[in-house]
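step: validate -> pass
step: tokenize input -> pass
step: predict -> running
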Amino acid sequence: MARIAGVNSAELTFKAFWGSATAELTTAFAIGTVVAATLTIGNSSETFIGNFLITSVEVTNNCKTPVEFSCTGESTGAITMPA
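step: predict -> pass
step: emit ->
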């Protein structure tokens, strides 16, 4: 977000699926963990890249395989945006 005047933070929210081990999921995306994220825009080669501090994680249904979950994070620095 460093290229947009006045904006210096971003929030990331996503839903995804994770193998079948809920314990590994909650360790990889534990609240307070910083994760690197690269978000590709559609089928293009343009991406947003940044590091995000995990602020929430919710397992939707740990009885299914794969496990469905959602996660939210806040940027920890500048976000690299498409040119």
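step: describe -> The beta strands are 11-18, 34-40, 47-61, 67-75.
step: cleanup -> pass
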